[in-house]
């Protein structure tokens, strides 16, 4: 079923609340990747140009609900918006739950919605409080589409009218096209640290892919089926599921790893076979033999889907695997699709944006979309048509 688009509505003088996904990596209050913010700008621009009273809401990181955490404030993002929208008045609002003053053609950025108690478990009262802030709700946070929280699901449910923003619309259109008939072989890579969220999606991804390459904490969980993984990030509760997947699908699992006894920027690390990892060691990246074995698989792919770095990319000594992966995808003739916050940072840092066929702002939502599940938020948006 179709949904109402922002371009279908008259926005002038209306209070328009846009839920964007501005969850970008920030270190020492500095934005590391602008990709998600920049992808959100067209919808905000459109609302401002149409003389709406524009309010933008987003989450950032995982703060403890009900508490303010200056490290996870949206203030640095507000400062960036001030630079971008020089022609407009841009405000930052910390306390907005009792209502806010807004004027046509002006922009207000709300503080991190995850500081509000009830946001994550979709509290009805909080959702209604948000809904009272606006006349029109615009869902544009593709990256948050798989999470039913108050500022996404709740707002879609309780707003007088809700529609899709430009980003959500273009993501849905592009991804639908991609998964319809992939050219084979199709290789999917899933890495990163959100092991439990991603694990449940692996079966569907393994089913639709010719090979599923696992990295990061997910790979560590596969390694842990038969080996000791020391202090590594992994999910013991998923080992059984990992074994079932390994025994039934074509899963590429690392054979060696770069390990370290300390988790920090200056750790050097050594390469070890996955069977030789000690209790005080932690897997930080793929080892050289694993990288060598992975590259030909990627080189013969015709479709590549990628989500999540395969090692601790932020530390210079542990980015070899992710860099080799990213560069091979960039040099490949395959149709390549990449998604996820950290994946976007890798692509930005390596300056290969133009070499990836389609870049999605979604991480979990991108994977969930590939699983071809219906999103409850989309179901809610459909009822307005
Ligand atoms: P995600 O948001 O799930 O894509 O996770 C991205 C994060 O995964 C990045 O911050 C990486 O540093 C982290 N990561 C990747 N591999 C590992 C690993 N072996 N151990 C710990 N963290 C990892």
From TrEMBL:
GO terms for molecular function: ADP binding; ATP binding; phosphoglycerate kinase activity. PANTHER family: PHOSPHOGLYCERATE KINASE (PTHR11406), PHOSPHOGLYCERATE KINASE 1, CHLOROPLASTIC-RELATED (PTHR11406:SF23). Its EC number is 2.7.2.3. It comes from the Bacteria. Substrate binds at residues 21-23, 36, 59-62, 114, 147. InterPro entries: Phosphoglycerate_kinase (IPR001576), Phosphoglycerate_kinase_CS (IPR015911), Phosphoglycerate_kinase_N (IPR015824), Phosphoglycerate_kinase_sf (IPR036043). HAMAP family: Phosphoglyc_kinase (MF_00145). This is Phosphoglycerate kinase. Belongs to the phosphoglycerate kinase family. GO terms for cellular component: cytosol. ATP binds at residues 198, 314, 340-343. The keyword Coiled coil does not apply. Its main location: cytoplasm. It is found in: Cytoplasm. Pfam families: PGK. It is an enzyme of class 2 (transferase). Pathway: Carbohydrate degradation; glycolysis; pyruvate from D-glyceraldehyde 3-phosphate: step 2/5. Monomer. Keywords: ATP-binding, Cytoplasm, Glycolysis, Kinase, Nucleotide-binding, Transferase. (2R)-3-phosphoglycerate binds at residues 36, 114, 147. It catalyses: (2R)-3-phosphoglycerate + ATP = (2R)-3-phospho-glyceroyl phosphate + ADP. GO terms for biological process: gluconeogenesis; glycolytic process.
């Amino acid at each position: 079923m179709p949904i109402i688009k922002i371009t279908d509505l008259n926005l002038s003088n209306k209070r328009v609340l846009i839920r964007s996904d501005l969850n970008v990596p920030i270190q020492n209050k500095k934005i590391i990747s602008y990709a998600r913010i920049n992808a959100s700008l067209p919808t905000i621009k459109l609302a401002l140009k149409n003389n709406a009273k524009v309010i933008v809401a987003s989450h950032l990181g995982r703060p403890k609900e009900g508490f303010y955490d200056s490290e996870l404030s949206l203030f640095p993002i507000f400062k960036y918006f001030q630079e971008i929208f020089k022609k407009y008045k841009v405000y930052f609002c910390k306390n907005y739950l009792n209502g806010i003053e807004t004027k046509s053609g002006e922009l207000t950025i709300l503080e991190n919605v995850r500081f509000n108690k009830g946001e994550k478990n979709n509290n009805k009262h909080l959702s209604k409080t948000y809904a009272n802030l606006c006349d029109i709700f615009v869902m544009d946070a593709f990256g948050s589409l798989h999470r039913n929280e108050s500022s996404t699901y709740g707002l879609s449910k309780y707003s007088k009218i809700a529609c899709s923003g430009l980003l959500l619309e273009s993501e849905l259109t592009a991804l639908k096209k991609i998964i319809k008939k992939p050219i084979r072989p199709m290789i999917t890579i899933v890495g990163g640290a959100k092991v439990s969220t991603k694990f449940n999606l692996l079966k569907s991804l393994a089913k639709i892919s010719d090979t599923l390459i696992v990295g990061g904490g997910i790979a560590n969980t596969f390694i842990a089926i038969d080996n000791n993984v020391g202090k590594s990030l992994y999910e013991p509760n998923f080992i059984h599921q990992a074994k079932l997947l390994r025994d039934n699908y074509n899963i590429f699992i690392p054979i060696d790893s770069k390990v370290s006894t300390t988790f920090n920027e200056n750790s050097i690390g050594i390469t070890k076979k996955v069977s030789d990892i000690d209790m005080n060691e932690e897997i930080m990246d793929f080892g050289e033999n694993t990288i060598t074995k992975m590259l030909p698989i990627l080189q013969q792919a015709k479709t590549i889907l990628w989500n999540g770095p395969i090692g601790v990319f932020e530390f210079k000594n542990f980015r070899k695997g992710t860099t080799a992966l990213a560069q091979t995808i960039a040099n490949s003739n395959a149709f390549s699709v990449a998604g996820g916050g950290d994946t976007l940072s890798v692509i930005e840092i390596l300056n290969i944006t133009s070499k990836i066929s389609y870049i999605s702002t979604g991480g979990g939502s991108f994977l969930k979309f590939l699983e071809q599940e219906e999103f409850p938020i989309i179901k809610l948006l459909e009822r307005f048509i």
